[in-house]
Amino acid sequence: MINLTDTQVEAQLCNISYQGFAVRLLEGQDPFELAQMQSVTITGIGEFAVTARWRRDGKIGLAFLSKRGARPLLDAYFARTGEFPI
Q1: Which of 6, 10, 46, 84 to pair with 22, CA 20 to 30 A apart?
Q2: Per residue in 8-29, pLDDT tens?
Q3: Residue 51: enclosing H or E segment and its boundaries?
Q4: Domain boundaries, the chain
Q5: Hey, what CATH topology would domain 2-81 get?
Q6: How many CB atoms lie within 10 A of CB 1?
Q7: pLDDT per position as a tens digit, 51-75
């Protein structure tokens, strides 16, 4: 879920690593200004402050603002799923 200034936009997680992740916007989502983005909530992992790195073809690449803060949540997620980033 992308948390904007005044609403939320649903998105699907495409990939994730310790540096950041990409999401795919669902079809029919209205475009929004990346400056409106406050944070992103990933179900089963947590909420992260992020910055957009790129946007194309209905996807947005995001980087964690605090890699140190994201690390424990990501470690727990990767341990639970058994899939670790390369």
Answers
A1: 6
A2: 999 999 999 999 999 999 988 8
A3: strand 50-56
A4: 2-81
A5: Thrombin, subunit H (2.40.10)
A6: 14
A7: 999 999 999 999 999 999 999 999 9
